Amino acid sequence: MKITLHPFKASEFLDTDEIRMLYLNAVIEDGNVAELKDTLAIIAESKGVELPALEGESWLLEALRKLGLGVHFLDEKKDQSA
């Protein structure tokens, strides 16, 4: 029996905005800039969107706008009893 393998494409599994955001948040929490750029490119591919060059001063904001994403900061209350 012959087995045929196909390249894994993460973009094929990012089929909802919720899944895309979970993926992006995981990389933001644990990744570095190179991983973040790769992730944005994968998300763009999953949406069929062409990203601008990921370089320069405002590359992140430009990429997020192009993907239709925004940035929200959450104020996490820290335990101050220490």
What's the helix-strand series? HHH
* Distance from first to last alpha carbon: 63 Å
Low-confidence stretches: none
The largest β sheet comes out as: none
How many H/I helices? 3
Radius of gyration: 16 Å
- Strand content range: under 5%
Instruction: Assign an overall shape.
Output: globular
What is the average of the pLDDT values?
89
Q: Helix- and strand-based class? A: mainly alpha
How many beta strands in the DSSP annotation? 0
Helix content: 40-55%
What is this structure's SSE topology?
Elements: H1 17-30, H2 33-47, H3 59-67
Helix pairs in contact: 1-2, 2-3
Question: How is this structure best summarized?
Answer:
By secondary structure, the protein is mostly helical. The chain has helices at residues 17-30, 33-47, 59-67. The longest helix is centred in the middle third of the chain and has 15 residues, at 33-47.
Characterization of the model:
It is built from 3 helices and no strands. By secondary structure, the protein is mainly alpha-helical. The protein has a domain of 39 residues. α1 packs antiparallel against α2 and α2 runs parallel beside α3. The radius of gyration is 16 Å and the shape is globular. It starts with 16 loop residues before the first helix and ends in a 15-residue tail after the last helix. The model has no long low-confidence stretch (mean pLDDT 89).
